[in-house]
Amino acid sequence: MPERQILLRALDTIGEDLRELEILYERYFSGEEKREPLQKREALQKRLRQFINRRIMKTDLRFRYESLAARYHTYAGYWDRILRLMDEGKYERHTGGNRPAPLVDQDKSGPKNDNESAYQQMLKAHKECALDRPAPSRKQFDAYLEKQRSSLAKKFGSHEIEFRVVTEKGKPKITARPKKAPTAN
Prior knowledge:
The chain is mainly alpha-helical. It has 2 domains: 3-88; 111-178. Helix content is 58%, strand content 9%. It is built from 5 helices and 2 strands. The chain has helices spanning 3-30, 38-49, 59-88, 111-129, 138-156, and strands at 161-168, 171-178. It has a two-stranded antiparallel ribbon with strand order 1-2. A hairpin with a 2-residue loop joins strand 1 (161-168) and strand 2 (171-178).
């Protein structure tokens, strides 16, 4: 097998493992995982070190290796900083578990119930995107939707507004549109 293909496969594997390690650390920082993925981190670091003294002649492969190594070192610095904050007790895990319980006697068709659905979508999208900032609190989210509802009421008239959360370019985004009136049969 040519050396180029061997290097390409090794770099592909390193890239996949780095992405997996990112996810494992985010899960650890959010409290889903109980232990830090140290073994996988050390194994990845060892494989990256194998390339340090290796002379890679092909420019594209050398660039790819250097990009992966730089990405790893950037993440390693970030992980070490978060771990240090956790040790000092200054890091708050953002699990989303401290949401207020929904009110039982609430009107099912009111804007609060729509907000609940949109908020759950936002939490899910925020978790899937693995962003480094916390998801907005329920109070912040409701205040934002009410502000948008009042400004969109001028645009759409008296129609009710439906909010949905979509992911664009790796970030959650709130979209709005007027609700369709139920059709009579």
